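Standup notes
- DV: blocked on the single-chain target, sequence here:
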Amino acid sequence: MTHQDTNAKEQWLICGLDVLEAQGHAAVKVEPMAAQLNVTKGSFYWHFENRQTFLDELCGYWLEKQKAIVQEFQEWRTLTPQEELRNLLQFILNKDTKHDLSMRLWAQDFAAALSAVKEVDNLRLNFCTRLFKRMGFNSLQAKVRARMVVYYQIGDYTRPHNDSKQERSRYLDELFNLLTASFENPV
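- DV (later): unblocked, structure below
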């Protein structure tokens, strides 16, 4: 496959994610996407055996993009864990995660999407758990904090935002303080 073929295939996948996000999985169909891309249906079948193959590859494409993001987080390892957490919270505030929500909705009906979402959640949870362990929290404390971060991210992009970016940033500062605080265990 040439570089041009790879780019064309990726354009189909990007278009598929955008249609999924805008209209839901039922709208991810060859003809409307071909019209949107201004190409023939034959272009689709050059890259994908059929719609089912495309849908499976769409899940894999999204998964690989998410893995690359988590891999970028690994490059922060030269920072202190607290600086890494601040970067992660800023990422949550600023990063476009529109396809996350549509993938989660699709995962309710499509096994490949569910598998991809579960893998992404595990990657994110594992990254955050390791981060909190590096801060000195025990395994349970680290896992609970990791869940707070990941579930905060999911909740953050599933609700409409009437808050200003400045106000959301203040919330994330407070979340940082809560996540890094050490609490005594009452026994």
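- Follow-up: The chain has nine helices and no strands.
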